[in-house]
Write a structure and sequence with these properties.
The complex is a heterodimer of chains A (435) and B (79).
Chain A lengths: L7 H10 L17 H15 L8 E2 L6 E5 L5 E6 L12 H14 L14 H14 L4 E6 L2 H12 L5 E5 L4 H10 L2 E5 L4 H11 L6 E6 L11 H11 L2 E5 L14 H4 L8 E5 L9 E6 H10 L1 H4 L6 H14 L2 H21 L12 E7 L4 H11 L1 E2 L1 E3 L9 E6 L6 H17 L6
Helix pairs in contact in A: 1-2, 3-12, 4-12, 5-6, 5-10, 7-8, 13-15
Chain B lengths: L2 H15 L20 H15 L14 H11 L2
Classes of the chains: A alpha/beta (435), B mainly alpha (79).
Chain lengths: 435, 79
């Protein structure tokens, strides 16, 4: 093992300028040694010593509306939890926990094999059937994956071959970008939700011999706004392209019946690859692609990260089958309604006072600008009693750092009022109140 | 180190990260103008640093506006 090669002057520089360091800076390495890893370790140690390391704080219970956070330095803070995407609160519903317990008792802890070899259990078939019934379109099926990230990685790289084209919204999630990269197809980005730019690219890229896949999202997780799915589908049809819609933050939630922004905008039948992530409203982990049966069958065998991974674990699979049953019934309808009410109420408390994401979605983004504010700001928010999810470069453009908050159906108005008050007091302190 | 030599290296890494650029790269433009996303930029900058064998302190790289700005940093820190 190589010795620690870190130059003392570098350590001193981090100690004196820690607030100027950002995540991306530790991606770079300029030599054969492990400088960026050793320096990042120093950086985290320095932040912990200053009691400012707010990340990876362990929860002591469920992802409910309030929780205790155990910080790495030993401190515990009590917070209103707006950092979990457990939108409908199903991850800790008693019926869901019971279904997961029943599944683990029946099938054991892990699936112990790839889904195409011997890792497919009856409980996986039940989840597939529940999803097919929930979305209820003829001739469709689902392919299950062990992570939402893997769905995009596997589905795009199975669908697109070298010589084909992937056209993505510039705000696309990293898993879409990585899937496109892995496919070997040519990658192009259109400006976020800019349909004129998309049409320009389609005119240029589409011909009779080239498969073109347009990748967009129901709700963009870094921007909190809706994808313009209606126009994307219209343009895809006009130019003979295929569409992938990632509904990670909207499946089970958006639309009257919870079928996502595709349902809300009336295009569910027109979308070729509907991607869902089980870690959000489904309350579990994993993901799936919903598509025509022949496409799904192909994904099962040719999405390499699926074929070469163990199948979903039985407990989570059983629990999520129950989630779909609940989401499809009166409780789902009631919680969707309450979530929408909560999002509107919370946005109303912030609107006009800070720079807020557009629309009415439950992913609420507040822009605070320069990423060097992140450490102090996140420390302040947690100590005041609010946990959020900070996003900054390179996840979003430089100097466009954001506080991201996930409203759930289970928050009370009092909790949301407290959260909004903390955001506004932080905005005054860290200079991002609208003038 | 000559500016053109540095530009050639940056151009090579830009074209590797963003396939499809056929024209000569204009240093007055930004990486974003050429379709690079934020992770591409990290790869282009660190790949160029490795090839040119020039170390630039990480915090010096956050205020670069265009490709010429990066060239200027390389010139300033070249030994």
């Amino acid at each position: 093992m190589a010795a620690n090669t870190l130059d003392e002057s570098l350590v001193k520089h981090v100690q004196e300028n820690f607030a100027d360091y950002t995540y991306d800076m530790f991606m770079m390495n300029m030599s054969a040694d492990l400088e960026e890893m050793e320096l990042f370790s120093e950086y985290v140690d320095i932040l912990n010593a200053k009691k400012m390391y707010t990340f990876e704080a362990a929860r002591s219970g469920t992802q409910g509306p309030e929780t205790d956070l155990a910080r790495a330095n030993g401190e515990t803070v009590h917070v209103v939890n707006l950092s979990s995407y457990n939108y409908l609160g199903f991850s800790y519903h008693p019926d869901v926990i019971k279904a997961a317990q029943d599944a683990v008792a029946k099938y054991g802890l892990g699936a112990s094999s790839s889904p195409v070899i011997s890792g497919t259990y009856l409980v996986h078939k039940q989840l597939e059937e529940a999803l097919v019934k929930f979305f209820d379109l003829p001739g469709r099926g689902v392919s299950l994956f062990t992570a939402g990230y893997s769905v995009n990685l596997g589905a795009i790289s199975a669908f697109i071959k070298p010589g084909h084209q992937v056209i993505m919204d510039s705000a696309s999630h990293m898993s879409i970008v990585e899937g496109a990269k892995l496919s070997g197809g040519e990658m192009t980005f259109f400006r976020h939700n800019d349909m004129e730019h998309l049409e320009e690219l389609l005119k240029e890229k589409c011909d009779d011999f080239t498969r073109v896949l347009i990748c967009v999202e129901g709700i963009y997780s870094g921007d909190g706004d809706y994808g313009n799915l209606k126009d994307v589908v219209r343009l895809a049809k006009k130019y003979g392209a295929f569409t992938l819609v990632d509904e990670a933050h909207s499946a089970l939630v958006a639309g009257e019946h919870g079928k996502g922004v595709c349902e809300q905008q009336g295009v569910l039948e027109d979308v070729d690859l509907y991607v869902m992530t089980f870690s959000k409203a489904f309350g579990g982990v994993g993901g799936a692609v919903y598509a025509k049966k022949e496409i799904v069958q192909y994904m099962n065998w040719y999405a390499r990260c699926r074929m070469f991974s163990c199948a979903l674990d039985p407990a989570v699979t059983g629990g999520m089958t129950k989630v779909i049953e609940l989401a499809n019934g009166p409780l789902g309808a009631e919680r969707r309604k309450r979530l929408k009410h909560n999002a509107t109420y919370f946005r109303g408390l912030l609107n006009g006072k800070v720079k807020l994401s557009e629309g009415d979605a439950w992913v609420v983004i507040v822009h605070f600008g320069a990423e060097h504010k992140t450490l102090g700001l996140n420390d302040y928010l947690q100590r005041e009693g609010l946990d959020t999810s900070i996003i900054q470069f390179p996840a979003v453009p430089r100097n466009e750092a954001r506080i991201r908050m996930f409203v759930t159906s289970e928050h009370t108005e009092a909790q949301l009022k407290k959260a909004a008050d903390i955001i506004l007091s932080a905005a005054a302190k860290f200079d991002f109140l609208l003038k | 180190m000559e500016q053109q030599e540095i530009l050639n290296v940056i151009e090579k890494h830009l074209k590797k990260s963003v396939p499809g650029i056929t024209e000569a790269v204009n240093a007055d433009k930004s990486f974003v103008d050429y379709g690079a996303n934020s992770l591409d930029i990290v790869e282009i900058v660190s790949g160029s640093m490795r090839e040119l064998k020039i170390k630039i302190p990480r915090t010096e790289l956050s205020d670069i506006k265009n490709i010429q700005g990066l060239i200027d940093k390389f010139v300033a820190f070249a030994k």
